[in-house]
UniProtKB/TrEMBL annotation:
<keyword id="KW-0812">Transmembrane</keyword>
<keyword id="KW-1133">Transmembrane helix</keyword>
<protein>
    <submittedName>
        <fullName>Uncharacterized protein</fullName>
    </submittedName>
</protein>
<keyword id="KW-0472">Membrane</keyword>
<feature type="transmembrane region" description="Helical">
    <location>
        <begin position="15"/>
        <end position="36"/>
    </location>
</feature>
Length: 72
C-alpha cells in the first residue's frame, strides 16, 4: 500500500492524484472480488444454461451489492 502511494507520487509528483488513483485501484479490486464471489461473470456467459432458481439467487447477490453501495 505504502509502496503504491510512493510510486504513484514519484511518477506524478502530485499527492492528490496518487491518492485518488490508489482509492480507485482498491475500489476496482473490491468490486472485482465481489463479482467473482457472486459468479456474475459465469451468469453472463452461461445465462441460457443456468436454471432460473440459480439466476434468482445470483440476482439477489447483485441487489445486495447495489444496496450496500447505495448505503454509503
Amino acid at each position: 500500500m505504502v509502496f503504491l502511494v510512493t510510486v504513484t507520487t514519484y511518477i506524478s509528483h502530485d499527492i492528490y492524484f496518487s491518492t485518488v488513483f490508489l482509492v480507485l485501484l482498491i475500489l476496482m479490486y473490491v468490486i472485482t472480488y465481489f463479482l467473482m464471489k457472486c459468479h456474475i461473470f459465469f451468469l453472463f456467459e452461461e445465462y441460457h444454461k443456468v436454471p432460473h432458481a440459480l439466476i434468482k439467487e445470483k440476482s439477489t447477490c447483485i441487489s445486495l451489492f447495489l444496496r450496500n453501495i447505495n448505503s454509503f
